[in-house]
Amino acid sequence: MKKITKKVSLLLAGCLLAGSVLTACGGSKDKGPSGTLVLGEAEFNGLFNPFFTSSAYDKDVYSKVVESLINNDRSGEPIDGVCKYETPEVIKKEDGTTQTVYKFTINDDVKFSDGSEPTADDIIFALKVYCDPSYDGKSSTSTLPIVGVKEYRYDDPNYAAALAEIDDKVAAFDPAQAPEDVVKAAAQSLVEEHGIELSQAMPGGEFYESDTVGLLPEFYRKSLEKAYIDKNMAAGGNKVPDIAGVEKVDEKTVKITLDGVDPTAIWELGGLPLVPAKYYGGEFKKGDLSKVKEKNGEPMGTGPFVFKSYENNVVTLEANTHYHKGTPKIGKLKFQVVDESTKLENVKLGNCDISDPTASKEMVEKVDAEGMHKELIENLGYGYIGISAERVEKEVRKGLMCLMNREPAIEAYYGDLATVIERPMSIVSWAYPEGAKPYYNYSKDEALEHFKKAGYTQEGGKLVKNGKQLSVEIYVGDLATHPSGPIITQMKADLESLGGELVIQDVAPDVLFDKMNTYTADMWVAAWQATIDPDMYQLYNSESNDNPYRIKNAELDKLMMEARTTLDIEERKPLYHKALDIIMDEAVEMPVYQRKNLYIFNPKNIDVETLAKDQTPFYKWDVEIEKLQMVK
Predict the structure, then answer these.
(1) Are 274 and 19 in contact (CB under 8 A)?
(2) 475 neighbors 515 (Cβ within 8 angstroms)
(3) What is the DSSP secondary structure assignment for residue 429, as one 8-state letter?
(4) Each residue of 505-541: b (16+ CB within 10 Å) or e?
(5) Are 80 and 70 in contact (CB under 8 A)?
(6) Which pLDDT does position 123 carry in this prediction?
């Protein structure tokens, strides 16, 4: 359903959300349809390769050049893209097992930007890159239960026995005897994930005992698997040249067979980039992706624009005359770094055509006063307050929930630009329960009852248990300007009036996410970015490393797993509704608000009549960028 927000994060093949986080600046001097639109971004990493991108801003560039196999409509449902969308076929086998078959057929009018026609081999190429033994990008495609994918990745048709041996070694693994390279690899992973210093994750460091040690078995396994793969590849390699479950039906069609059912797989497989294998692969050999990486700075595909250059921190694209939806009306796109604080001013002065300032009552009033065209779209995500189940006992968590007075704070900050929500899921998702009522009421009396159930008594004006006052620490980024700031300050005052203590840590975002992701915060204030499919397993299951609440609930695990066994939305809905109620009962996450995003367009430069109509979180202005025109 969602992933923890990192400094630079990107869900690659698993999310086809059309729409951009970019800001368009600099109106065209040439007002004709062959004009130039300048798009403002945060700083690029320069990795415009769809296989290895790790930045949302780099993705903004390549997504105008490279398209995924399928798209989604305004409600987030899969539809045709460069390939025809077909409902996956679920096959019940005689032995009681199930397989799911996905079929992708490239549409006849689709061409690469050089005029050549894509084939089934190009789709298979992309899949093989993601599943290659040497692949080190961010995609998780190789973890899908594709028939034969493990044989291919390990390059061994009899891999099971070797993996069983590795399992035995990992089971007997003693972290105290971990090889130095395993310790360093685990520590480096924490550095990249949470932005901490390497020394903090190494022996003697602040997070070594609490985090690195817990990762050592996983990285020990990875080191053993890598050694196993390296040995196989060194012995000639390519004993398994193909993935058994990937079939070339004809020159335009590929079938991919998965063991079992996985509702998220359509977005992972449908998110494969359609790129020319000859351009990206060259002499591509299994186990060596160096040729693919040579194109990191020069993407090519079937998209509406063609990559031309990246110089002096400016990316230049030109209209693709072979684009299957028709040649774009705008002749050139330029991406360059812009200052976040000057978005509205640049639009006002005519230097910017399109921008996305943070939505607030004041900003909307200014936009209206300047005569700008605006689009207010629900954000695919929500703000929340989290509580650690490991650090704060359940009845105390419930008492804290009863001290969160959400409505006045959100109304004062956002007005009608945000909605208070009652379950931990974006309201734009089909899995959000319609008409959900508050699970906890704001009530000091009810809060006190929960604290008493936890064993606390009021003595001498303090809430105490075993001689210790109830004290909880909460991390928040910029309390004075945060939408949830008033909730926290009132919560502090209310808890103190009952005899407890709320210690507010007003910190930089990096510090907050570090404490959250290393499980060292009692409470924190943050927001989630959601994905199209509402699968909750990664975030809440008892064994997940991405479970910041440290919640462990067997019934919840069972519901989430059951929801993964069918593709039928109507069967999944009640399972998620029950799961969301369990999360609320566990009192580890209080959903606070669903806000809107603001996009503004200068009608002096942009022909707003050519913008995509009825925009949604899944279907933003740039989905139909080929139709966009400058004012003549």
Answers:
(1) no
(2) yes
(3) S
(4) bbbeeeebbbbbbbbbbbbbbbbbbbbbbbbbbbbbb
(5) yes
(6) 97
pLDDT at 149: 96
Please give the backbone phi and psi of residue 161, each rounded to the nearest 5 degrees, phi first: -65, -40
What string of DSSP letters covers 528-541?
Answer: EEE-SS---HHHHS
Model pLDDT, residue 39: 78
Contact 225, 166 (CB under 8 A): yes
Answer whether 486's CB lies under 8 Å from 409's CB.
Answer: yes
Q: Which DSSP symbol is given to 625?
A: G
SS (H, E, C) 188-224: HHHHHHHCCCHHHHCCCCCCHHHHHHHHHHHHHHHHH
Element (H, E) at 237: none
Beta strands in 436-485 (DSSP E): 457-459, 462-465, 468-469, 471-477
Return the CA Rg of the chain. Answer: 26
Q: Identify the top-confidence range among 112-126, 286-300, 503-517.
A: 112-126
Tokens 């992706």 belong to: 289
Instruction: Please state, in angstroms and rounded to a whole number, the distance separating the CA atoms of residues 417 and 433.
Output: 21
587 half-sphere exposure, CB direction, 13 A CA radius: 20
Supply 591's token pair: 């959903």
Half-sphere exposure of 416 (CA within 13 A, CB side): 3
Whether the CB-CB separation of 387 and 397 falls below 8 Å is answered with yes
For the CA atoms of 560, 474, 479, 357, the dihedral, rounded to the nearest 10 degrees, stands at: -20
